[in-house]
């Protein structure tokens, strides 16, 4: 027979009240700890400087101020940076094997849609591995057709020592604005 006012049946399970009284706060405490740990972890990850991401090879480059598509990178240049790969005479050299996301955007200076369609040979942008010669291959080849800006990206395997080069064919020149013309890579996986 149950005791009056206790809310627990004494005969059936005398330990049920003790279990309920212990398990509910324990589960609530674990849930609170889990939420606090997740929040601290996400805050810590947001505060990590780029240098602490040692396993990532990254480069975001801006164009050198000359008519060719040679690149430069570094903190003094604003939003461009180089972490892992290196520059060799304005071209990007890979220092670690892996799958990379290669991305590029080029805007033509002094351009209109009629200026790109007037030419018999349209202006074309090419990105490729130019050295070593044994691995020389075109990775991207894009035509401006009737536009003044092209942008593209692709995943591609790159090996240590591969040097990426960019080439713009035609008579039109790339924009000097770093928001309009840029090139970069990001290591994705081995």
UniProtKB/TrEMBL annotation:
Q: Sorted alphabetically, which keywords does the UniProt record give?
A: Cell membrane, Disulfide bond, Glycoprotein, Membrane, Signal-anchor, Transmembrane, Transmembrane helix
What is the membrane topology noted in the UniProt record heading this document? Answer: Single-pass type II membrane protein
Q: Which GO terms describe its cellular component?
A: extracellular exosome; plasma membrane
Q: Which residues cross the membrane?
A: 18-38
- Tell me where it resides: Cell membrane
Q: Which InterPro entries match?
A: CD70, TNF_CS, TNF_dom, Tumour_necrosis_fac-like_dom
- SMART domains reported for this sequence: TNF (SM00207)
Keyword Disulfide bond found: yes
Q: What family does the database annotate?
A: Belongs to the tumor necrosis factor family.
Q: What is this protein called?
A: CD70 antigen
Q: Which gene encodes it?
A: CD70
